[in-house]
């Protein structure tokens, strides 16, 4: 893969355990969302995303309580809503800054990201979590602040992760031909879309899952990737 000039990485199941998101971040947001909305509802950014959530749900008119109930239900459903992800990111910031938690990284990830950065590879993130939430996760990691290693971040405002055009837009934003971008993910459908867009792909199959290829080169960790 010597022609690779940029690496685009997913987060959940790729750089970080899905359990951290499922067992730490989601419950924290669910517990704190009602009070957060009540105390921040007058701020322009929160107002914007509450309006977007109502519009997405098809509400013509809705009380604040109804919107809060909607958002909590979406958390339970793991809905890939841009509005929900943005609001979760704001709540998670308070958790990170208060020291309630630090983000999980698989053992080899930080060192490998640093090595790739030193080799001159441009590093990018593409996750269904909002860009601010991505920056918090890498900024408050178990291995310290990793954000200086990254050249950019992409979320569902670019497009959904199983859509081919999302990866074309990312390659255009990066300014590289898709063939010079390596996309890392644990989800086959995301990898399929990236490959159709022309990107190189590698699937992360984290233990205890058995290592088997599913139409894409498969590795158990970042140390097995040679871009």
UniProtKB/TrEMBL annotation:
Gene3D superfamilies: 1.10.720.60, HAD superfamily/HAD-like. Its cofactor is Mg(2+). GO terms for molecular function: acireductone synthase activity. The keyword Cytoplasm does not apply. Transmembrane segments: none annotated. Residues 205-227 are annotated as: Disordered. Monomer. Bifunctional enzyme that catalyzes the enolization of 2,3-diketo-5-methylthiopentyl-1-phosphate (DK-MTP-1-P) into the intermediate 2-hydroxy-3-keto-5-methylthiopentenyl-1-phosphate (HK-MTPenyl-1-P), which is then dephosphorylated to form the acireductone 1,2-dihydroxy-3-keto-5-methylthiopentene (DHK-MTPene). It is an enzyme of class 3 (hydrolase). InterPro entries: Enolase-ppase_E1 (IPR023943), HAD-like_sf (IPR036412), HAD-SF_hydro_IA (IPR006439), HAD_sf (IPR023214). Binds 1 Mg(2+) ion per subunit. Pathway: Amino-acid biosynthesis; L-methionine biosynthesis via salvage pathway; L-methionine from S-methyl-5-thio-alpha-D-ribose 1-phosphate: step 3/6; Amino-acid biosynthesis; L-methionine biosynthesis via salvage pathway; L-methionine from S-methyl-5-thio-alpha-D-ribose 1-phosphate: step 4/6. This is Enolase-phosphatase E1. Keywords: Amino-acid biosynthesis, Hydrolase, Magnesium, Metal-binding, Methionine biosynthesis. Its EC number is 3.1.3.77. It holds the Pfam family Hydrolase. Belongs to the HAD-like hydrolase superfamily. MasA/MtnC family. It catalyses: 5-methylsulfanyl-2,3-dioxopentyl phosphate + H2O = 1,2-dihydroxy-5-(methylsulfanyl)pent-1-en-3-one + phosphate.
């Amino acid at each position: 893969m010597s022609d690779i000039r940029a690496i685009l990485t997913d987060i959940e199941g790729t750089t970080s355990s899905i359990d951290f998101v499922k067992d730490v971040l989601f419950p924290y947001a669910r517990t704190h969302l009602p009070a957060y909305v009540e105390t921040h509802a007058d701020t322009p950014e929160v107002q914007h995303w509450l309006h977007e959530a109502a519009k997405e749900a098809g509400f013509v008119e809705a009380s604040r309580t109804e919107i809060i109930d909607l958002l909590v239900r979406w958390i339970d459903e793991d809905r890939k809503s841009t509005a929900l992800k943005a609001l979760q990111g704001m709540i998670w910031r308070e958790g990170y800054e208060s020291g309630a938690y630090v983000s999980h990284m698989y053992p080899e990830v930080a060192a490998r990201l640093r090595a790739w950065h030193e080799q001159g590879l441009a590093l990018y993130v593409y996750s269904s979590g909002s860009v601010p939430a991505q920056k918090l996760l890498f900024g408050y990691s178990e291995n310290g602040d990793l954000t200086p290693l990254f050249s950019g971040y992409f979320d569902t405002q670019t497009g959904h992760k199983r859509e081919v055009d999302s990866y074309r837009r990312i390659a255009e934003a990066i300014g590289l031909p898709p063939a010079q971008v390596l996309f890392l993910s644990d989800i086959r459908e995301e990898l399929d879309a990236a490959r159709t867009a022309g990107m190189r792909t590698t699937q992360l199959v984290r233990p205890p899952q058995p290592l088997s290829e599913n139409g894409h080169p498969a590795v158990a960790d970042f140390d097995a990737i040679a871009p």
